[in-house]
Design a protein that fits this description.
By secondary structure, this protein is mainly alpha-helical. The protein is built from ten helices and four strands, in the order ββααααααααααββ. The longest helix has 29 residues. The two termini are 25 Å apart.
């Protein structure tokens, strides 16, 4: 209804406006905002050049911020003493025993040193590539989990500087990289000045490896791959303890960060990554991906934003 002229008792005409006209504009605006939000939240085919650039820049910023955090040596050593005392009070201070036991087998500890220095990056990048190629509809949500996990870890490095066990004073931990002169670690030797040595809490070796393991377990079809996915973070936990780079409580911190990452991704996409469609529409309107046949569960529609009625 439009405007109408009403004759008043004084003989003057007054304009009255129907309330429906005023409500139409906010409602249309709300629908427009929700439509844009749905577009942003809808899985899309990731672009290779953008992903390479994004990951490279993000890791550069992560390293820059992590290493720019004040080392605060005194506080880091004090916090390490406190963590160690807490673990002792719990009867779970086993890191030193594991460190010495594994170091007795030179071939094993050297292998673990290389594991610690390399697989942290190799496996994570490999899983991202696998998601990009095989699960394009889930890639962005899974990547958001990883990025949010890493971002909140930086806050932990700043708020709670922590020395790794190998740098504790008055304890008998072995710095296995220094002892065996293993190549490739940023934690010891001549490369240690290039990295913040007091950023042990939370452990991103655990955060990233658990992300890899859960992603593989949830999305891989081969049983052996799913089993390996679960074994990877478990093996990483043994490695970070045996090399005296982390307390087991650092691993708990990494798990908490990962839980935060999943919460952020769920809040944005309205679903866990593995429950999103496997394939996504291409610009021509058909599904893209390397798999010809897709189970029905992989083609479910993307959840609507929570604000939609």
């Amino acid at each position: 209804m439009g405007e109408s002229h009403v004759k008043t008792q004084e003989g003057r005409s007054a304009d009255t406006t129907s309330p429906h006209g005023d409500e139409a504009s906010p409602e249309a605006e709300r629908k427009s905002v929700l439509a844009k939000l749905r577009t942003l939240r809808s899985p899309r085919r990731p672009r290779l050049w953008f992903e390479i650039l994004l990951i490279a820049v993000s890791y550069w910023l992560y390293s820059l911020v992590r290493n720019a955090v004040p080392e605060q040596k005194a506080a880091a050593l004090s916090n390490a003493d406190w963590i160690w005392s807490v673990e002792k009070s719990m009867g779970l201070a086993f890191e030193e025993s594991v460190n010495h036991a594994v170091n007795a087998a030179t071939w094993l500890i050297v292998a673990m040193n290389y594991y610690y220095a390399t697989l942290h990056f190799v496996i994570t990048i490999g899983v991202l590539i696998w998601l990009f190629r095989r699960h394009p509809g889930r890639y962005a949500a899974a990547r958001l989990v990883l990025f949010a996990t890493t971002a909140v870890a930086l806050l932990g490095y700043y708020l709670y500087p922590l020395a790794p066990p190998r740098l504790m004073s008055g304890e008998n931990f072995i710095d296995t990289v220094m002892l065996h002169q293993t190549w490739g670690s940023m934690a010891s030797g001549n490369l240690k000045n290039m990295s913040n040595q007091y950023a042990a809490m939370p452990s991103m070796h655990i955060g990233w490896s658990l992300w890899c393991g859960l992603t593989i377990f949830a999305l891989a079809s081969a049983p052996w791959a799913r089993i390996l996915g679960l074994l990877y973070p478990a093996a990483t936990l043994v490695v970070i303890v045996a090399t005296a780079n982390h307390f087991w409580l650092d691993a708990v911190g990494g798990m908490v960060c990962l839980a935060f990452g999943f919460a952020v991704s769920y809040a944005w996409y309205g679903s866990l990554p593995n429950r999103l469609p496997k394939l996504v529409p291409s610009g021509r309107g058909h599904l893209t991906g390397l798999t010809a046949s897709v189970p029905a569960r992989d083609r479910r529609p993307v959840p609507e934003p929570s604000g939609r009625r």
